[in-house]
Amino acid sequence: MDIKTKTLRLILGDQLNINHSWFTSVDINVTYVLMEIRSETDYAKHHIQKVVGIFAAMQSFAKELQQKNHDVIYIHLNDENNLHRFDENVVALIDKYKFNQFEYLLPDEYRVDEHLKTFAQKLDIPTKVFDTEHFYSTRTELGDLFAGKKTYLMETFYRHMRKKHKVLVDGESKPLHGKWNFDEDNRSKLPKAHKPVIPLVFSNDVNEIETEIKKANIKTIGKVDSKNFIWPINRKQSLELLDFFSTNCLQYFGTFQDAMAPNEWSVYHSRLSFSMNIKLISPKEVVDKAIEVYNKKSDQIAFHQLEGFVRQIIGWREYMRGIYWLKMPEYANLNYFQHVEKLPNWFWTGDTKMNCLKDAIHQSLDYAYAHHIQRLMVTGNFALLAGVHPDEVDAWYLGIYIDAFEWVEITNTRGMSQFADGGIVGTKPYVSSAAYMNKMSSYCSGCYYDKNKKTGDRACPFNSLYWNFYHKHEDKLGNNPRIGMMYNVWKKMNADVQKALLDQADHYLKHINEL
Length: 515
Ligand code: FAD
Ligand code: DLZ
Ligand code: SF4
Description:
This protein is 46% helix and 5% strand. It is mainly α. It has a five-stranded parallel sheet, with helices on both faces. It is globular, with a radius of gyration of 24 Å. Bound molecules: flavin-adenine dinucleotide, ligand DLZ and iron/sulfur cluster.
């Protein structure tokens, strides 16, 4: 007699893809399980909004599956039988309900991937793993594309993606409007009188979830208004946010992509990373929607705005994932500059006199969000100039942002921002003095420090730290053709000026917690 297959399928908190082929029909012999567990709440000190947001989205997803008549087990954080590990909870369910098959979706994170792989090998019932059906590219596609090459240029990968998926190309796979990349049309500062669109936020009541998290005594950072939780927690809200972005923000996306201003926490950014990273919506849906709106309103939306946005998703997002799977686990230990310092205490409070950092950190604590240039050129720039150990920097970024999952956090932080990978992701370190900050933001005019001063009382710390960084790492950067010009400037300074800059930097680094 045939033994009926009784399958348990695990869904992780960032695998909430209702369009996955798992869910196209109801199978009474299949049970899905989602679990709120300490292994995941505690591997980093997360922002409270991140934990709340993920739990709310998981609960809503489980309900949606049940409404579609799928059989679902949901293990809540404080359930008595919760063993707080994926493997142990699954074993307990297999024993209790006599499942004779276990299936899961490819995890996005190396740690969880290894954990489930090892676990599945040890189980004495058949196991299967499925793709998440979310990304454009496979885990190994980038590695295959660059096989035998020493460098991994994002631009090469991006063009490959555009051609392969026929995005913004003509019938001969040539880029629309004659160029692949319109970045030089972007990067403007917000004009003084310009007020960006008011960001669309939601008002979800997640109070019960917050209460459970507090009851479990989970250590978190930041704050949450749990009666009015602003982030999308289901597909409907995610699609609303996508619609809002395409209608109201896309037309300025590229132009003000790098702009920063006090109290403007979103500018024209989409804030879709959380929805996408937990798979409530797919990158293809986002790209297709942006193109659809552009096609309808091409009299109002310039092509470079659209190309700039598409590049972030089809290019950078997929590229970072490809690098992650190519270079992990070694990537997590790279420290090219051998940096050893700790993050200043004020990274956790925003309590600093440096206006740009104060604003970016307060905003991150308040919203669990900062846009790309704040992450790269404010907090990341400072951490790199201050010689902070990449582990410290990673832990901060992995915790504080609602969209932070290691595959996209570590490649951006350790790679793009800290250059700790020695140039796998970027071709040069992203560092700047106050000049860049002043070019792209209005932070400097309200700052305790003087953007124009390099040394002496109230000199902007970025100015001396910048030269100190280049001086210190000349052995590693001196031959980089993209930086050569900076070394020429440094070498032309007279010795007294150089010494004053290095002394100033030394003073600031010794008093970093008081900046
Ligand atoms: P938008 O500016 O509206 O861009 C649209 C989308 O493009 C984003 O939602 C995102 O999916 C994608 N995108 C844009 N830039 C990147 C990039 N560099 N890498 C990957 N995807 C990108 N992004 C994360 O999703 N999770 C992280 O943990 C994360 N950590 C970062 C850490 C540092 C130090 C830096 C410099 C960047 C980090 N990023 C991370 C990339 C980027 O900053 C965020 O994706 C973006 O700010 C999310 O906001 P948004 O949705 O409004 O993006
Ligand atoms: C980030 C996170 C948190 C805070 N909590 C959970 C959880 O309780 N249960 C769960 O399934 N997933 C959670 N996640 C997301 C996981 O960490 C994520 O699925 C893995 O890192 C794989 O990318
Ligand atoms: Fe930041 Fe320096 Fe400008 Fe102040 S003066 S906002 S510290 S760059």
